[in-house]
Amino acid sequence: MTTENAYDLLLKGGTLLDPASERHEEADVGVTAGAIAAVGVGLSEEGAGRVIDVSGCYVTPGLIDFHVHSYWGVNPFGFDADPLCLSTGVTTAVDAGSAGPVNFLGFKKLVAEVAKTRMLAFVSLAQHGVWTTPGELEDLRFADPDGSAATVNENPDVAVGIKVRLSRRIVGENGREALRLAIVAGEASKSPVMVHVGNTIISMEEILNTLRPGDIVTHCYTPQAPSVVDENGKVLDAALRAKERGVIFDVAHAGGHFDFDLVRSAMQQGLLPDIISSDIHGLLLSRPNPVKDMPTTMSKFLPLGLSLDEIIAASTTNPAKAIGWQDRLGSIESGRAADLAVLEVIEGAVTFQDSVGKELASDQRIAARWTVRAGLVYEGAG
């Protein structure tokens, strides 16, 4: 390589782990002008602006945290996601309905266009986005399927689908109608509907049977009944049928939606997660919490039985596909934006917590060493 063709950044000596291309092998990654310039063994260091020795680490596509609340300063769940994302390997964060059609422009201008992390968003069915008290759809006059669909259609660079929360405290007695209106919005926008489950007035079977292929059950392992398992711990037939026809199951850990025993049992019965996400939000971060960050959430699936390759796929390739962005996100290819995570699997005793007070011992955890977003390097929290 001549000096004039040198890389701005070279990640040297790591293991490439790219589920989209089924590559799990030693390879260097060269970056030029914010894009991936080359992937291969023995790339030249000559003239490189910066060379990082990533020996002992995995170079993966930038992590996609598929469920966060980042509309900070406006929505009560919001927080400034940039510092956390960029220190934990997350290059893309997807806000889960913090903005609705009446305030989405604010999210786009004040968050998405300002943040260093790529910020995408599901648009809430509720005009003003998700809320605390009162719940955003206790009064269905705030439901705006036409406005939500139009917002998705008019903002394809940021808006990726429709979000509806169906818990009793959020919709009161309106769960069935709220779900119907969300599907109407999804049809009108030709986009997926993300449905928050747990403590719903309508049954899980009804929810699952209503969803279309490509729609998303978020908080898929919630212990808040009705859940994906019955009173005897058996996975619902409706859940397995939904997964077979293409409904997507998203972890969205949060402070109340992840139970180790339920997760383990559901996975053993064939209900594996399609997407791993954190549901980090400002109210959660204001107190000690079991979620912490995306790598911690991912790490919990090591002792629960997923392979590292499966965990990375559920945190990169799969979420990219779920929103139809697989041509831009979730893989390591020359010419694409240089959004990368440099991760290390650290050996040593660690104890994880779930959302209901249980603990799980492990001898491994996943840690971020560096985050590369559009070619810029950020130190990982480790």
What do you see in this structure?
The chain has helices at residues 82-86, 104-112, 145-154, 168-171, 175-189, 204-210, 237-244, 260-268, 282-285, 294-299, 308-315, 317-322, and strands at residues 9-12, 15-18, 23-26, 28-32, 35-40, 50-53, 58-61, 63-68, 90-96, 118-124, 159-165, 193-196, 216-218, 248-250, 340-353, 359-373, 376-379. The chain is α/β, with parallel strands linked by helices and 382 residues long. The protein has two domains: 3-60 and 333-349 and 364-379, Urease, subunit C, domain 1 (Roll); 63-322, Metal-dependent hydrolases (TIM Barrel), CATH 3.20.20.140. It has a seven-stranded parallel β-sheet with strand order 8-9-10-11-12-13-14. Strands 3-2-7-15-16-17 form a six-stranded mixed β-sheet. The two termini are 33 Å apart.
Helices and strands, with pairings:
Layout: E1 9-12, E2 15-18, E3 23-26, E4 28-32, E5 35-40, E6 50-53, E7 58-61, E8 63-68, H1 82-86, E9 90-96, H2 104-112, E10 118-124, H3 145-154, E11 159-165, H4 168-171, H5 175-189, E12 193-196, H6 204-210, E13 216-218, H7 237-244, E14 248-250, H8 260-268, H9 282-285, H10 294-299, H11 308-315, H12 317-322, E15 340-353, E16 359-373, E17 376-379
Parallel strand pairs: 1-6, 2-7, 8-9, 9-10, 10-11, 11-12, 12-13, 13-14
Antiparallel strand pairs: 1-4, 2-3, 4-5, 7-15, 15-16, 16-17
Helix pairs in contact: 3-5, 6-7
